[in-house]
Automatic annotation (TrEMBL):
Positions in coiled-coil regions: none
Substrates-to-products reaction catalysed: 3-hydroxy-L-kynurenine + H2O = 3-hydroxyanthranilate + L-alanine + H(+); L-kynurenine + H2O = anthranilate + L-alanine + H(+)
The protein's name: Kynureninase
Source superkingdom: Bacteria
Pfam family, one: KYNU_C
A single cellular component GO annotation: cytoplasm
Length: 423
């Protein structure tokens, strides 16, 4: 059966969706079709009350006592990072005991890359993919500089070709932030292991939207942000996963007191906490972690398989409507997201000579996606599909708006001639 292009058919798909009920777990503003959850997830409804409680009662009334459990069941800030890790673990196919949450993505990448390099002291090369999110390359270059290593760029079409006996670590982003293309995580992990190298995965554009299966793949290290598909809020803390087989030997470089075996012994010398505990550095951000903890409640009762099925159904529909209604009339639209399910994350991107104007004109109509510079023109219009709160009718309506923008040449409005620096 060919897929629907009528709105009523999209409605039917929504009625049958096992995730139809989860949209109510979010505050999506009226009149907005939100296709930017791959940059900043929408606000889960439980977050404002949780933050108010933590600020007013736990911080305001409980004060320092709130680091320990309070009689009313609140507080226990000291265990917050672990509680959040336990919510994230099933979404990335990991054991909660192997996940740390608390630093920014960039800092987490730094810690993981240094630890990986130290695990392979005889190997002097870090391999990074050149189209990865910039911070991944910048941090790897910083580590190479710090440790006197070589940074080697790989071919995105064949990252393993760059991995030889000199390579300590292959650091890849699982789902590409521009195109939405997804690497074969188990296959590449196995290939790198066969060459004696470790692999680190950046899961920023994967966690909460696509199956990751870190333990099953026997990956080495992984880092991901929590403000995209995990909806933790702007700048919410990142997670780090370390394979238990590496934890005893892995040494992360920011040896702060919270990663000490007994922080409150206030000992002079650093003694790493066992297991993933060593990956903590300083005091964790309690307000941000509290928001994230409440946000992750939106995943309760939802399986990774359901998320993936819904995400593919949404991106399939968007691609089909683009093919049916847009590309034949405006052939300058060049879809850059893989059609193959096995190679697609949870976003759809296309190049267009006026991609920036298109995105701005859509935003003016309440359809929020974003623009990404692709290094060379044409730039990329990018649309993320968060399965917990997006419906097929939203996809249908978004394409209606796109057609209207193109027909009315709204994207050529001179107001869009200069770009906003933060997009
Ligand atoms: C793949 C990837 N890595 C890292 C980051 C960001 O790192 P940070 O959270 O430190 O800003 C992003 C997005 O901001 C990203 O898309
Ligand atoms: N982290 C961001 C920020 O502080 C401002 C604006 C955007 C972001 C993003 O997350 C960008 C995002 N990682 C991307 O894929 O482009």
């Amino acid at each position: 059966m060919s897929r629907p292009s009528e709105r009523a058919d999209a409605q039917l798909l929504d009625e049958r969706s096992p995730l139809a009920h989860t949209r109510d777990r979010f505050r999506v503003p009226d009149g907005v079709i939100y296709l930017d959850g791959n940059s900043l997830g929408a606000l889960p409804v439980g977050v404002p009350d949780r933050l108010a409680r933590v600020v007013e009662q736990e911080w305001g009334d409980g004060l320092i006592r709130s680091w320990n459990p309070l009689p009313d069941g609140g507080g226990d800030w000291i265990g917050l990072s672990k509680r959040v890790a336990a919510r994230i673990a099933p979404l990335i196919g990991a054991d909660p005991a192997d996940v740390h949450v608390g630093d920014s993505t960039s800092v987490s990448l730094f810690k993981a890359i240094v630890a990986a390099a130290r695990l392979r002291p005889d190997r002097r090369v870090l391999v990074v993919e050149p189209t990865t999110f910039p911070t991944d390359g910048y941090v790897a270059a910083g580590v190479a500089d710090l440790l006197g290593l070589e940074l080697r760029w790989c071919d995105p079409a064949d990252p393993l070709a760059a991995v030889d006996e000199d390579v300590a670590l292959l650091a890849l982003t699982h789902v590409d932030f521009r195109t939405g293309a997804m690497f074969d995580l188990p296959g590449i992990t196995a290939g790198a292991h066969a060459r004696g190298a470790l692999v680190q995965w950046d899961l920023c554009h994967s966690a909460g939207a696509v199956p990751v299966g870190l333990s099953d793949a026997d990956a080495d290290l992984a880092v991901g942000c929590t403000y995209k598909y995990l909806n933790g809020g702007p700048g919410s803390p990142a997670f780090t996963w370390v394979n238990p087989r590496l934890q005893a030997d892995a040494r992360q470089p920011i040896t702060g007191w919270m990663g000490h075996a007994s922080p409150f012994a206030m000992a002079r010398d650093y003694e790493p906490a066992g297991g993933i505990g060593h990956w903590a550095s300083g005091t964790h951000p309690v307000l941000a972690l509290s928001a994230l903890d409440a946000a992750l409640e939106a995943f309760e009762g939802v399986t990774v398989e359901q998320l993936r099925a819904a995400s593919l159904s949404l991106t399939d529909l968007f691609l089909e409507l683009l093919d049916e209604r847009c590309v034949p009339r405006w052939p300058e639209i060049e879809v850059v997201t893989p059609r193959d399910h096995a190679r697609r994350g949870s976003q759809v991107s296309f190049r267009h000579p006026d991609a920036y104007g298109l995105v701005q004109a859509l935003i003016a109509r309440g359809v929020i996606g974003d623009f990404r510079d692709a290094g060379a023109e044409p730039g990329i219009a990018r649309f993320g599909f968060t399965p917990l709160y997006l419906r097929h009718v939203d996809v249908h309506d978004a394409v209606d708006h796109l057609v209207a923008v193109l027909e009315g040449e709204e994207h050529l409005d001179p107001a869009y001639a200069s770009r906003n620096p933060v997009t």
